[in-house]
Specification:
Number of helices: 23
Number of strands: 23
Radius of gyration: 41 Å
Distance between the termini: 89 Å
Largest sheet: 6 strands, mixed
Low-confidence stretches: none
Strand content: 15-25%
Structural class: alpha/beta
Shape: elongated
Mean pLDDT: 84
Amino acid sequence: MKDKIKLKGKLKSYMRWPMFMTILLIIMNIVLYCVNLKAGAIATGFTAVYVVAAVILYFQNRPTILNELISFATQYGQVQKNLIQNFALPYALLDADGKVLWMNDEFLFITGKDKKYRRFIGNIFPEVTMEKLPLQDEVRDIELTYNEHEYRLNMKRVDISELLDASEIVEADKDRSYLITLYVYDETELKKYIRKNDEERLVTGLLYLDNYEEALESIEEVRSSLLIALIDRKINKYFAGIDGVVKKLEKDKYFLVMRKKSLDMLKEKKFSILEEVKNVNIGNEMAVTISIGIGMNADTYAHTSEYARIAMELALGRGGDQVVIKDGNNITYFGGKSQMMEKTTRVKARVKAHALKEFMSSKDNVVVMGHKITDVDTFGAAIGIYRAAKTLDKKAYIVINTPTSSIRPLMDGFLHSQDYDSRMFVNSHEAKEIVDDNTVVVVVDTNRPNYTECEELLTMTKTIVVLDHHRQGKDVISNAVLSYIEPYASSACEMVAEILQYFSDGIRIRNIEADSIYAGIMIDTNNFLTKTGVRTFEAAAFLRRCGADVTRVRKMFRENMEDYRAKGDAIRNAELFRDCFAISVCKSEGLESPTVVGAQAANELLNVVGVKASFVMTDYRNTIYISARSIDEINVQIIMERLGGGGHLNIAGAQLEHYTIAEARDTLKQTLQNMLNEGEI
């Protein structure tokens, strides 16, 4: 057998070196003969001795070398196998179906299986399914917990097609000519330190007393210091209990620092500090409420602080009495169940009015738009801004794509009047041709970019103004140069009416314009029954002085018979869920503005004894519109936020795309049930 083995490659070349040396010595011997015969004879003797020795050694050692090579080759595979068998890293081989073919000692140790185990790997690790086995040229990592350890499984294919082709006893399909290698990495300790590092991350926050001045005014002066001292003590004790640090910045502002682990504890308690501060009472007529803005997981401490500031702005913009957490791009809300107290001062309205006048004065065009499916409040607010622009002799336009039946009576009054430009109302396409860098875009009655009539306008100019009375959510118009958002206001028309009073001395509002703004307030407050305050009636009084006529407005909003019947059917077919939630459906067939009718039906359902909140769904243009209403016991705004919508505590809504009525009803019921179980409502 050994005689048949032939050397090749580098080893063959190495074994031929004596022959090359012999040739070299013979040449040298010939040269010496030419120089000196005696020297040549001596060299011949030595050359002969070298040749004899080389020949003897070559033929004598060749069998030994071959034997050693064969022995090494036979033992090399066994060495490799032993190395893998005793490898400290758990390792296994699987077939194409995921069945175990072979496991090393460490794999056997952590799984407790024996060497003869040949079942599917998913029986050991349930997280591994057939769908999770690696594909061609793919490495799969699966994280799982097994026997109280956290492992990462690394799987990839190993091609054995060449081995199978050379085999005469094994045959397999070309598509299955591979094995799967499985490495198991124990990351228990690594994950432990990662979690610990995450829990120790810095979280910063701001805490504001929402109604500091108002609360002090409701108590005797000699007791005001005691009230503030009790609140300070309550706040400091609360955060000290979770290893947090509180630093008072101003009389009603605090800076918070804590660990992420501490924040998780506060989340579990649902920030009970909100209720604890409200319960501090030493005779004050008004309960003190707080707002907290928290920032976390930013790339720097400075950015974390900036996140906290943004979160606080959101909390205040949503009415206060709540916690807002900004975690990167994710926003989380807690609380916000109480009605925000109305501010009696109108200083902010005056400041915003002067700022709006400055922006309008510096531009040639003013374009006003509201939310999609323009309602009366949006229309009235837009008319108010239109009048402000005209007072400054600016070109003004109102964007309305599809006028609904609710605004058509008001709109017709402007279109049929000789005092107004026939192009005062434009659609989105026309608005895009108007808007440029010399244009002010004023957004009324919404603060979400995707809710506006034409979202593209927000990128076509740098001068954007937002006036809204809805609470802010995650998606807001972030590039506005002026943002006036007051959740306590009853309507956008109320806000615009206040702005007009400070916009310009002697501003003249025409009767038809006053009617439109007054109608917006009347509709959004359900004839002054919902969410009305002192400033609501003051705004209405101002509009009455400008010529608004209650009788004229009422006539314009009389309903046609089809709308009235649809509203009646929605009320008649209402379902009482959990004995306090009225849920119904308003048909859209044959109705020009079914969403408006649905909102009216939701208002009417609140008149039923025992109903705490009403929800009316309308299927319109392949979207389910939900109108949610309540009086004072339920915060429908946080319910609608769960469904992607928003609004106020008492008036809110949501839009569900690609849902059927049945699916929307089930989703709404499930949301209500979950929030009841969680104690959110």
